[in-house]
Design a protein that fits this description.
Number of helices: 11
Subcellular location: Cytoplasm
Distance between the termini: 33 Å
Family: Belongs to the PanB family.
Strand content: 5-15%
Function: Catalyzes the reversible reaction in which hydroxymethyl group from 5,10-methylenetetrahydrofolate is transferred onto alpha-ketoisovalerate to form ketopantoate.
Protein name: 3-methyl-2-oxobutanoate hydroxymethyltransferase
CATH topology: TIM Barrel
Bound molecules: 5,10-methenyl-6,7,8-trihydrofolic acid, 3-methyl-2-oxobutanoic acid, magnesium ion
Keywords: Cytoplasm, Magnesium, Metal-binding, Methyltransferase, Pantothenate biosynthesis, Transferase
CATH class: Alpha Beta
Number of strands: 8
Length: 264
């Protein structure tokens, strides 16, 4: 979308308008998504899975995110583009600044990092140095080896309260957006209501301020195990453009995600 900014996205939340987003990894799809009016695109480290054929996001490097961010930027010059900080690029705040600079030079408008309270110093340092930050809580795929699999997070009361606390902490530290992955609908709603920054859900129910999906998933291209939150929008449409338009329409009118795509 032409001239999308973080201020406009925060205004959308305040106005109760749903925010639509997809991952993008190349110029052609970035151009298509921009033409369809998507609010923002994420150059996700999920490219490890869907582009490289890895079994996790851990092998992805910042140089690879740079390459794909440059491609997405060329395809969609006016889009709001977020780039993922890959595994172990936030080991220290100083390192995070140097790695984030590479993504911003590649054309990103904001960087996304997986984590909460333990990253508040990093978030503060990035924001002070003019790097807008999106945090990512709930299921953090870079922690798959600690979590022991891709599972719903925050079903227990204590973990839910912990996630709320982390969400408030990253907002307090200066994060201007939050991605919330694989949490019960109720927790997605609670966190969205407690935060003033947009909360973008993936498997977090229909009550978040917006939705994101991996583009391959929404085109039904993922042939392996399909997460519950995924819907194939190409199945009901005739072409890629119509599928993206249907996704945007259903996110905006609240019909996606339905209960069948959400967790209790
Ligand atoms: N193609 C693709 N789509 C994604 O959404 C995605 C990636 N790749 N790669 C990185 C991570 C991995 N993600 C995943 C992968 C699997 C589940 C999954 O199978 N979740 C179970 C939860 C079951 C439960 O705990 O109750 C599910 O049934 O959806 C969730 C997120 C999200 N990200
Ligand atoms: C699924 C989204 C939120 C992501 O982090 C990615 O695509 O890497
Ligand atoms: Mg990611």
């Amino acid at each position: 979308m032409a001239g999308m900014t973080i201020s406009k996205l925060i205004q959308k939340k305040a106005a109760g308008e749903k925010i639509t987003s997809l991952t993008a990894y190349d110029a052609t799809f970035a151009k298509l998504f921009a033409q369809c009016g998507i609010d923002f695109m994420l150059v996700g480290d999920s490219l490890g899975n869907v582009v490289q054929g890895q079994t996790s996001t851990l092998p992805v490097t910042v140089e690879q995110i740079v390459y794909h961010t440059e491609a997405v930027r060329r395809g969609a010059p006016d889009a709001f583009v977020i780039a993922d900080m890959p595994f172990m690029t936030c080991a220290t705040p100083e390192q995070a600044c140097l790695e984030a600079a590479k993504l911003m030079r590649a054309g990103a408008n904001m960087v996304k990092l997986e984590g909460g309270e333990w990253l508040v110093d990093t978030i503060r340092m990035l924001v002070e140095r003019s790097v807008p930050v999106c945090a990512h809580l709930g299921l953090m795929p870079q922690s798959v080896n600690v979590l022991g699999g891709y599972k719903v997070q925050g079903r227990e009361q204590a973990m839910a309260e912990n996630t709320v606390r982390q969400a408030l902490a990253v907002q307090q530290a200066g994060a201007q957006m939050l991605v919330l992955e694989c949490v019960p609908t109720e927790l997605g709603e609670l966190i969205s209501s407690k935060l003033s920054i947009p909360v973008i859900g993936i498997g977090a129910g229909a009550k978040t301020d917006g939705q994101i999906l991996v583009m391959h998933d929404m085109f039904g291209l993922n042939s392996d195990y399909i997460p519950k939150f995924v819907k194939n929008f190409l199945a009901e449409t005739s072409d890629l453009t119509a599928a993206v338009q249907l996704y945007i329409q259903q996110v905006k009118d609240g019909s996606f995600p339905g209960p069948e795509h959400s967790f209790e």
